[in-house]
Amino acid sequence: MLLEINDLHVYYKSYWYTLKVLNGVWLRLDRGERIGVIGESGSGKTTLLKSILKILPQNGMIPRGEIRYDGKDILKLSGNELSKIRRKEIGMIFQDPMAALNPVFKIKDQLYDILKYKMMIEGHNPSSKELYEEASKIFSDVRLPDPDRVLESYPFQLSGGMRQRVMIAMALISAEKLLLADEPTTNLDVTIQDQILKLIHRLVMQKNLSTILVSHALGMVYQMTDRVYVLYAGDIMEEARTRELFSHPKHPYTQLLVASTPRLSSVGVGEGIKGKLPDYRNPPAGCRFAPRCPYVMDKCINTKPGKIQVNREHVVSCYLYD
Amino acid sequence: MQKTSVQELKFIELERKIKRENWRRMWFRFKKSKLSILGLSMILVLLFMAVFADYVAPYPSHAGLHIAFKNAYKPPSLEYILGTDMYGRDVFSRIIFGFRYAFMMIGLVLSLVAPTGVILGLLAGYYRGTVIEAIIVRLSDIFISLPPLVLALSIASILEPNIFNAMMAVSLMWWPWYVKLTYSMTVSLRNEPFILAAESQGASTLHILFKELLPIQLGTILTKVTLDAGWIILIGAAISFVGLGAQPPTPELGTMVSEYSKYLPEYWWMSLGPAAGIILIILAFNLLGDGIRDVFAGE
Amino acid sequence: MQDDVILNVSNLRKYFNTTEGVVRAVDGVSFNVEYGETLALVGESGSGKTTTGHVIMGFYPPDDGKIIYKGIYDLSSPMKKRTLELKRDIQIVFQDPGTSLNPKRMVKDIITLPLLVHRTIEKKRIYEKVAELLEYVGLSEEFMFKYPHELGGGEKQLVAIARALAPQPSFIILDESTSALDVSSQAKVLNTLVKIQKELRLTYLLITHDLGVVRNISQRVMIMYLGKIYEEAPTEEFFKSPMHPYTQMLLSSIPTLSEDDEKIKPKEIESVGEIPSAVKPPTGCRFHTRCPFAKPVCSQQDPPDIIANSGHIVRCWLYE
């Protein structure tokens, strides 16, 4: 078991109110597994990833829950140990490459920084020649042509696809054990997206990396993961093997999501889901999907359903299956 | 037909209710900060004193020409709160009348400068790439590059130095800043989809300028107007201080500081009074300006 | 034949002068849109599909070519010079819900503007008409008094659609209108668009990069790449037998959700390369730098239009 999250609560506190975003998230990941977390924007998926690396903004707090990584409780680790993990073990691909790349520094500077800090942990102080060789190797891994030019460029001089590849390269440097990907291909053209996804797939297989792919793009999650969690408004609603989840979704939210996605093989888009995400300042007391659920019952409004095992490996959080 | 108009009336009433709600919310945002309330109260008090100076001031006749040498150079006392000046006039009363001139200046300058500047800025930004923009922008650039005091000096040498001409001078150097502010905001908004949508639906230019572009900029402009008020007093006082503005015996705050500074340091209360008055007004407008900014901050 | 055509575009060109050179955004595009259909204009970034839509709307004048609306109106004049009637009849729904509505204006005022400009309704009945329009797109009348920041992305787009419908147009350009929405909002908006199309006899030009959406609501598809159209076909035909290598590359790149969908994807071709710069596009067929089937002639000459089936046109030397 590489990563185990139990009953994770994450709140964002401000002067006037508290946003209770994550409401008891549970998740587990074995070594070498590729899991996905499906969630629309605002569901808390980025919050979840940031909690794992403990890079929540200042007003983010974790009042309850635990994150066990490699046997250690991340929330209780010291600054030094956390640093080590961030530099060498867990890497993250962010949604917007321009958010992860500093626009006023050349790619070379940013990349070398990451490499250097990682090598320093290994007890090694690299020379600039070594850094250059290492960087070229990584660039060829991510199929970036013309590494010399890219290294000397500023982020704005590269195309979207190239920036994404640079960010993947940077994430992979620090990801020896676990790769976190937050919407790694939004904003990219679909043909470029395809190349990037295949690239990530190849590298993940090659290095036997465990991955958590977080996205609202169901198709991408279907293609890239073995097991999926469905996250709605800070609660995990369903967990299953990927093929199983998409062919036999059990939770009403999942069913509606899958039905609403336009298909290539048939015509007709679902009706969509009425309503909106709840207000995190005052979230529903029971099941957070209850206000929008077509099958809502009284008990759904009052208490949150627990984890119900429907099948081997298929878990739902819904009273319909009680 | 009867049924329809009842429906319409219902909607009209609803809209009024919602708009009242919005005003209430704005006020709520304003009064969240105690300092803003303080600023507002100070302005209201000073304004009251300015308007009713004849009744509020203990010695209203001392405002202008008044000579009573036996009362001259008296330090602050119960009778003369801030003492008397070299002609025996009550400094405190004169300051209250000074507020009147201060508000007059602010009112005149801002009501000239703000609307003109904003309209020119909107036009220049909306008609980007045309002669209109070029003319307006170049013109304001020219005026901005003229040193304010030199401008005031030139005006004073052409016209006689008095408070009205001082205000004209201040207006002339102030208006380009409103053009610049509005122009840059308009340029950045000009090609936003919602403006293109309005244009593509055939909205008139007047509508786009005043009903689409201006409302978005109103918050920034009002904040600037409020904060400018303090600066205008300061510049006006500076102009009077060098003798180009209000002439004695006019009880303008800057003029008084100038006149009375000759009597420092023994008769310190004379210049302290008007200087404190200036500081008070500037402080009040700054606090108010912070409040106004907070109201529009969420946008 | 001509009576069926609401919009005729021939040889449209639009270039932009930039610091890096001249961007040939739209470089010789011709097509017809028929009354009542949904024609999808598909492409990735740099394809010129958005520029085409914007030129039709009049945001820029074309550099060459003709655009004829309803057989008589010449749309090569920019927005400012167009008649009020044209502005009423052709509407657009933008991509980003966050910027297509003025944040300082109430929904009611946003929708009232076209009503007043075109005098579609008397002032006495404005509120009623706005409520009617909102209801038509599936929003309750209380949305009238809300401001854009109180609405979700999907709701904002529905307001944008209501605004577009207000002057009773005939032709609506949907410029990536659902690309910024989550799957649920997208479904609601698409369903609304389809429902009202028949009732109000609207014609849609759907500009998008999302082939899933295309499959579901359009009758005909056109593929653009770097300023030119390379394939055009009825939707079902398009997905069943895509001919152009770029089309095949596009289709094979779509992340699908099910085995059935997977089967539709062409297997022979995989995505390679980056989209070249529009400042110096490749010579001849612009796709030849990424095409696995490129022949020498592809880099020398622009391929001609080849009619494969009725309604199915490819621009590729492979099918000569």
Layout of secondary structure:
The complex is a heterotrimer of chains A (322), B (299) and C (320).
Chain A: E1 3-13, E2 18-29, E3 34-38, H1 45-52, E4 60-69, E5 72-73, H2 79-89, E6 90-93, H3 97-100, H4 107-121, H5 128-141, H6 147-152, H7 160-174, E7 178-182, H8 190-207, E8 210-215, H9 218-224, E9 227-232, E10 235-241, H10 242-247, H11 252-260, H12 298-302, E11 308-311, E12 314-316
Parallel strand pairs in A: 3-8, 3-9, 6-7, 7-8
Antiparallel strand pairs in A: 1-2, 1-4, 4-5, 9-10, 10-12, 11-12
Helix pairs in contact in A: 4-5, 4-7, 7-8
Chain B: H1 2-31, H2 34-51, H3 53-56, H4 91-126, H5 131-145, H6 148-158, H7 163-189, H8 193-200, H9 205-241, H10 253-261, H11 268-295
Helix pairs in contact in B: 1-11, 2-4, 2-11, 4-5, 4-7, 4-9, 4-11, 5-7, 6-7, 7-9, 8-9, 9-10, 9-11, 10-11
Chain C: E1 5-18, E2 21-34, E3 38-42, H1 49-57, E4 64-69, E5 73-74, H2 84-89, E6 90-93, H3 97-100, H4 107-117, H5 126-136, H6 153-165, E7 171-175, H7 183-200, E8 203-208, H8 211-217, E9 220-225, E10 228-234, H9 235-240, H10 245-253, H11 259-264, H12 296-300, E11 306-309, E12 312-314
Parallel strand pairs in C: 3-8, 3-9, 6-7, 7-8
Antiparallel strand pairs in C: 1-2, 1-4, 4-5, 9-10, 10-12, 11-12
Number of helices of chain C: 12
Indicate the low-confidence ranges of chain B by residue numbers.
Answer: none
Radius of gyration of chain B: 24 Å
Describe the global form of chain C: globular
Biggest sheet statistics of chain B: none
What fold name goes in the CATH topology slot of chain C?
Rossmann fold
Question: What string, H for helix and E for strand, traces the elements of chain B in order?
Answer: HHHHHHHHHHH
Radius of gyration of chain C: 20 Å
Strand portion of chain B: under 5%
For the largest sheet of chain C, list the strands in their spatial order.
6-7-8-3-9-10-12-11
CATH architecture of chain C: 3-Layer(aba) Sandwich
Query: What is the total number of structural domains of chain B?
Result: 2
Which two chains share the most extensive interface? A-C, 42 and 41 residues
Number of strands of chain B: 0
Q: Which structural class best describes the helix and strand composition of chain C? A: alpha/beta
Tally the helices of chain B: what do you get? Answer: 11
Whole-number average pLDDT of chain B?
A: 87
